[in-house]
């Protein structure tokens, strides 16, 4: 066993993936430098401790314990030879999505385990971005189909604001018509019971009510994104009303 641990340490010293070895009781007997970086625990802090109590969310622990009883006698199990994607908890409490593969090491009549673990956070984030974009395209396509059925401006406006809330997840959407006198007339908003768009006066001229995000976007002819309206000094004329919603 010591010979195997020395071999493992030599391999794992510069490996990017975390490598952990546990004994037949599920206790840590090797913890690679990458495991220290990935999970924020120094090796000396985890040696001899049960790995599932260190890294596993509570929801995985019962399943691990029952599966490990079978593994340590047979060397087989769900994670042996079949990489799985799970979640782990770091020392600071951060949840990390991981890919894990386990290889058995026979010791007498029982088995110890060597786990190779990869942090798949970046890949998961990319997948989520792709899925979000795909969802956006599906919703845009569906909305375009609705809009193509009518030329009535008020109907189109109602369909657009409803779709923004129901398909794109915004809290409130409204569409205004730019008037020649510098005002912006509310054409439609959704949810309809949220009366905020009807209770404010928005302009697109150089008055104070025209210097807010809507007025600036109209004058500049380009989208304007405000990350925090309530802290935007140009939003001051509508702040008190907005706070009520």
Note the total helix count: 10
Beta-strand percent range: 15-25%
The main pleated sheet reads as: 5 strands, antiparallel
What characteristic shape results from the CA principal axes? elongated
Instruction: Give the H and E element order.
Output: HEEHHHHEEEHHEEHHH
Number of strands: 7
Q: What's the Cα radius of gyration?
A: 29 Å
Low-confidence stretches are none
| Cα distance spanning the termini | 65 Å
- Percent helix: 40-55%
Provide an overview of this structure.
The chain is α+β, with helices and mostly antiparallel strands. It has helices at residues 2-12, 33-39, 43-46, 51-55, 58-74, 121-147, 153-166, 196-199, 213-220, 236-243, and strands at 18-22, 28-31, 84-89, 95-107, 110-119, 173-178, 184-190. It contains 10 helices and 7 strands. 43% of the residues lie in helices and 21% in strands. The N and C termini lie far apart (65 Å).
Summarize the model shown:
The protein has 245 residues and is an alpha+beta fold. It is built from ten helices and seven strands. The protein has helices at 2-12, 33-39, 43-46, 51-55, 58-74, 121-147, 153-166, 196-199, 213-220, 236-243; strands spanning 18-22, 28-31, 84-89, 95-107, 110-119, 173-178, 184-190.
